[in-house]
Amino acid sequence: MKISNINVNAYATQYSIDWSDKKGNRYHVWLDRTTRRRRDDTLYKNPPTGTKHKGEGYFPTRRLDVTNKANLTTFEYAMQEATRLGLFEKEEQHIADKVAAEKAANYIKYVEHCKKEAGPELYAALRNLLEDGSFNLHMDRTRELIAKASVALALAEKK
Predict the structure, then answer these.
(1) From the CA atom positions of the chain, what is the Rg in Å?
(2) Sheet with 26-32, side-by-side order of all strands
(3) CB 39 within 8 A of CB 71
């Protein structure tokens, strides 16, 4: 089979399996993401990557019948290779990694936002605590915390 660059991309509810022929023409078929079955009987054919619109070698996307014997054989080979190479699983893992990275980045942004939002309220609470003086000074831990709060407030006020 003279095809190369077999690739799988996942979208919301479907996969696209694509490949190139020896001339560089690109093909793809849409698959249901759950069942991995063809969405329809269309095999899309596009010119090689880098072909300029209306330039040499250009042609508009062609919609071929994937059930044609030669096309079906090529499609089935691409599916077998994609399965053998684990391309569906790799694409799902890529998406899971991307989602995890986005969640981690969003969490960091959320924590930073919370720190910024909480800062003025914490400052006011510490200021009120020190000015009120109604805390219990009989415990060493309380004294230590108040001392640290006093230092933190003094440093914050200098900035």
Answers:
(1) 31
(2) 3-10, 14-21, 26-32, 42-46, 62-65
(3) no
What's the pLDDT at 2?
Answer: 87
Sign of the torsion formed by the C-alpha atoms of 123, 124, 125 and 129:
positive
Same domain membership, residue 109 and residue 78: no
What pTM was computed for the model?
A: 0.67
Q: Which long-range contacts (CB under 8 A, 24 or more apart) does 117-124 make?
A: 123/153, 123/156
Rounded to an integer, what distance in angstroms lies between the CA atom of residue 10 and that of residue 16? 6
Sorting pLDDT into bands at 50, 70 and 90, what band is 112? confident
The pair of structure tokens assigned to 99 is 């989602």
Angle at 66 between CA 63 and CA 70, to 5 degrees: 115
Domain count, the chain: 2
Clarify whether residues 76 and 124 are in a common domain: no
pLDDT digits (tens, 9 = 90+) for 94-108: 999 999 999 999 988
Q: Are residues 79 and 9 in the same domain?
A: yes
